[in-house]
Amino acid sequence: MPELPEMENYKLLLGTRLNGHTITMVEVTREKSINVPVEQFQQALLGNSIRYIERRGKHLLFHLSNSKLLLLHLMLGGVLFCGTEEQKPDRTVQVTLRFGNMLLYCIGLRLGYIHLYEHPESAAQVLQKLGPEPMEPGFTLNHFKGAIGKQRGTLKATLVDQHVMAGIGNCYSDEICFDAGLLPERRCAELSAIEVDQLYRSMRHVLSEAIRYGGYMDMPLYAGDVLTGGYDSRCQVYDREGESCYRCGHLIMRNEVSSKKSFCCPNCQQ
């Protein structure tokens, strides 16, 4: 599932390609991927342009020139591709937006969606349940301590809880724990002050590095895209079961933590 770094990467790259461009065609092949009738969805978008794109947690917000808003959540298996008809990936597409010769393909929206809202305030009500953005400058160590200190569950469950912080999922929760030298099954209430400080620093470091290298998604956003997916080869533990730890050489293990798959090095994480 795309997480904060993947969606931030999409936001930055799509902004340079779509902002200011007019939507000239809308195709919906899976009506369940949208929240209004297809005809209403098409009429609201056609002839309008993308003013700018925001990210909130794992969501993208497309602000339209008619003040309406598209809220995208890719969920599990969803990806985006931006290109010409000839460049379209051989994948099932649920929603397509055309901008002249350029098309934005929303792929794999079995669980994901792209919803239309008449006003940004309406979408804000949907997003208000999300916790703070972990990479915002205002989310200080003290704010982090306050958020973590209220939790009694495992680190894994806490880091992926979108009510606690928005945007972290299975991959980066494991990477953050590894960077901090902490096991994902550790309980938040048991952490020392030094460990909480390290966890905060690791969270900021891992997420910033993942954004810098384009996240871990393996499909390019457009033809010639050499940034998207660059962090995949830099993952230290995620999806590396049975491989050697880059830090100590011990084998990476996969466990179930709080009913979620989790990867760690049992030797150098405590």
Strand order of the largest sheet: 1-6-7-5
CATH superfamily of the largest domain: MutM-like, N-terminal
Shape, please? globular
CATH class bucket of the largest domain: Alpha Beta
Order of helices and strands: HEHEEEEEEEHHHHHEE
| Average pLDDT for all residues | 96
The CA-CA distance between the termini, in Å, is 27 Å
CATH architecture of the largest domain: Alpha-Beta Barrel
Contiguous low-pLDDT stretches (5 residues minimum) are: none
Strand residue content: 15-25%
Q: What share of residues is helical?
A: 25-40%
Q: Major beta sheet, specifics?
A: 4 strands, antiparallel
Structural domains: how many: 2
Tally of DSSP helical segments: 7
Cα Rg: 20 Å
Summarize the structure.
The chain is an alpha+beta fold. Helix content is 29%, strand content 20%.
Characterization of this structure:
The protein is of the alpha+beta class and 270 residues long. The chain folds into 2 domains: 4-127, MutM-like, N-terminal (N-terminal domain of MutM-like DNA repair proteins), CATH 3.20.190.10; 141-264, Helicase, Ruva Protein, domain 3. It contains 7 helices and 10 strands. The strands form 3 sheets. It has a 4-stranded antiparallel sheet. The longest helix has 20 residues, at 193-212. The chain is globular and about 55 Å long. The two termini are 27 Å apart. The relative contact order is 0.14. The mean pLDDT is 96.
